[in-house]
């Protein structure tokens, strides 16, 4: 699967992306690709061009404006995918 295609499919319908970090196989050139906070449109275009590669077995995190994030995970079956995560609320008992 193409990393750019996966990224676009995953962020569709999610809150605005604030930043992102992807790490590809260390044996590839340009193994670490970062989209820094407060990026502009040219930086986003550059980021997308740099992740436009067919690749499996890569890591990454995407941060969103609402405080949620997505990260690359590997299932027990060995499938790799993006998983959107939300910070859980602190239980009421812990607030007292």
Write a structural description.
It contains 3 helices and 5 strands, in the order αββαβββα. Helix content is 24%, strand content 30%. It has 96 residues and is an alpha+beta fold. A 5-stranded antiparallel beta sheet has the order 2-1-3-4-5, with helices on one face. β1 and β2 form a beta hairpin. It is globular, with a radius of gyration of 15 Å. It has helices at 3-11, 41-50, 92-95, and strands at 17-23, 32-35, 59-64, 69-74, 80-85. 11% of the residues are buried. The protein has one domain.
Largest sheet: 5 strands, antiparallel
Q: Are there runs of 5+ residues with pLDDT below 50, and where?
A: none
* Rg of Cα set: 15 Å
Helix content range: 10-25%
The overall pLDDT average reads 89
Instruction: List how many beta strands DSSP finds.
Output: 5
Helical/strand content category:
alpha+beta
User: What form results from the Cα inertia axes?
Assistant: globular
- N to C succession of SSEs: HEEHEEEH
| Helical stretch tally | 3
Number of domains: 1
Terminal-residue CA separation: 48 Å
How do the strands line up in the largest sheet? 2-1-3-4-5
Strand content: 25-35%
Which features would summarize this protein structure in a list?
96 residues; alpha+beta; five-stranded antiparallel β-sheet; 3 helices; 5 strands; globular
């Amino acid at each position: 699967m193409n990393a750019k295609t996966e990224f676009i499919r995953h962020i569709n319908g999610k809150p605005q992306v604030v930043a992102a970090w992807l790490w590809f196989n260390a044996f590839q050139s340009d193994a670490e690709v970062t989209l820094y906070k407060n990026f502009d449109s040219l930086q986003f275009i550059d980021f997308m061009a740099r992740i436009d590669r067919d690749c499996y077995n890569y890591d990454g995190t995407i941060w969103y404006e609402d405080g949620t994030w997505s990260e690359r995970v590997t299932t027990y079956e060995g499938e790799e995918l993006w998983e959107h995560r939300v910070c859980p609320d602190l239980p009421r008992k812990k607030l007292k």
